[in-house]
Amino acid sequence: MKREFRAGAVVGFINGLYDESLPVSDVEVIYTATESISDDLGYTFSDKMLTIRSNNKQRRFHIEAEITSNDEEIVLRVFDYGYMDALRNKSIKNGVITLSFPQPKIIYLEHWSTAPDEVTLKLDFWGQGTSKYTVPTMKFLDYSVEELEKHNMVILLPLYLLKLRRKIESAKEKGTAEQYTEDMRSLLNEDILGTITKNVDMGKITRRDAHTLLKLLNRLYNHLYGEIKEFQDKGVKDMVDEKLMLENELEVLEAVENVAKEMLLENLGIDVIVRTTKLPRERIVALRESMPVPV
Description:
Helix content is about 45%, strand content about 20%. It is α+β, with helices and mostly antiparallel strands.
């Protein structure tokens, strides 16, 4: 999860992941620093700690992403990161210190059939009984693209490239990766790109959110499958490259137009703005006409 996403998209994702109904407008998302100094002066990292503030109320969430489900001690890390966050947010009243842990969730990006629905840490307070710290899990690849969309978890879509990873890795060893060419093209273009575009059209995510997703998709594809010659020869990623190029151009154009608007607000002449921004005169006139009239 990146800070470039609009707050509403992040809150929608949190609502889907945790089955919450937090408001997605007039909301602030605060990303807590996930780097903490441990007792041995080493560094520990959690995947994402964030606070959502709305209407003078706030909720804290801790999301831990794991590539596989065979780490039996992941609950220890989640507890450790949660404890450090609780220390940062501790309260003291009438001589009693209260540690409030963020709400945790583990996302298994890939998993085996034995992956648990939750992981539990048993805390034994000698003489005071025991307590359980339980963390629910999400088995990412058990969700279809349609289910991710339904639960407003569109910002996870680039990770859906993992759906074919094990099959393609096995095929690469046998020299038969080409058999997955059309499966990968369909996954990229119809499932992932198609759903991103659909959610932009529906107003669930912004064009800027979509651009961030495209960049993540491009980076992850290159990491996982970029060296597969059969995919290169068949132009599997051509549509991603074309859309990313278009979005990059639109982003640059938007930045230049924002400069032009600032110059218009400063009452600079159109000729000066044309020379500075290289925008067509007609576009600058259109920008001027679209701006609110100063009171």
